[in-house]
User: What shape does this take?
Amino acid sequence: RELTVDLGDRSYPIYIGEGLLHRAAELFAKHGVSLKSPLMIVSDANVADTYLGPLEEQLRSAGYLTVSITVPSGESSKSLSVFESVITKALEAGLDRHSTIVALGGGVVGDLAGYAAAAYMRGIRFIQIPTTILAHDSSVGGKVAVNHPLAKNIIGAFHQPEIVLYDLQTLQTLPGREVRSGLAEVIKHGLIWDAGFVSWIEENMAKLLSLDPESLGYALYKGCSVKAEVVSKDEREQDLRAILNLGHTIGHALEAVAGYGELTHGEAIAIGMVGSARIGVELGAPEEVYEVTRRLFISCGLPVGIPAHYDTDAIMSAMMRDKKFKEGRMVFVVPTAIGRVEIDKNMSADLVRRTVEQLK
Ligand code: NAD
Ligand code: ZN
Assistant: This one.
């Protein structure tokens, strides 16, 4: 399957299919990746174990000058210090303005490598090879960032990839927890955009959890389509793109309070989406919005409540630091129906606080 992210003045393809990793050299060439300038692959320890060697070999035999850097697995690699080590590697390897940085891995590697590509020499080319389900979201749309200990994704840029190459076969080695976590973003794409897709997910949850290639391919195609459509309409998050943050205001705060890594991103936003659905119902959405949302996450094996030992004050202050908090008001994505959300630019922090308490 192939999709296009159309940004008006430029566009890029998303390839989704089985065995695409073996066609990387061919697709790189098709999209003009230079043979003359060094190319750098960024991956993490888990991913590198299985997928880095074959990719390097293939690119080298096609004539590419490749260097690789493998960072530790996990959210802690989205830091300024790991970012610096990526830049150091790029300098040592002599990457120039025509070089490409390739992200081979999940959202952590994608965000880190993407930010390095955005910053190195004020921006060089960048290719996403996502290897997690979650990364169907992070690899499309061009938001790249690293974390600060006080706030997630706060140091970043918009930097679109040249291509996204999504090989479904790589997903077969994902641990169960990462499968469930990634499905949280798939569900999000249904909840914000497409009630029919939400029903399809409910019916096919067991197949998705068992990584049935056919169902997974369809779900990721649909998820990427929603993301691509939203980003095409509003690349820089002037308005519409903010709907992609459903569940993320609470979710990011939970991640920050938990210390990055205790909750996966998908787990945190699943709880956040349940909270947002609760708020939606408080503000007039039909009760089923909450019920369906909660049921979906339970059937996916994701958490739907906040662990009792998380401090509400700490969660609220983390939320205030989040960039979605502007001019004394909280911007919050509120579900109004299944498949529909609204951006509330004047959300009451009190209501959010009460909801956080209820989720415990
Ligand atoms: P991740 O990159 O840490 O991957 C999860 C785990 O799976 C890691 O331990 C990794 O080593 C391992 N792994 C990856 N691919 C594997 C494979 N094929 N087989 C076996 N193990 C594999 O996390 P993630 O969930 O992919 O991404 C989360 C990050 O994405 C968060 O930092 C989040 O903020 C970011 N994100 C960014 C955007 C965006 O628009 N830029 C959107 C959503 C999420
Ligand atoms: Zn997310």
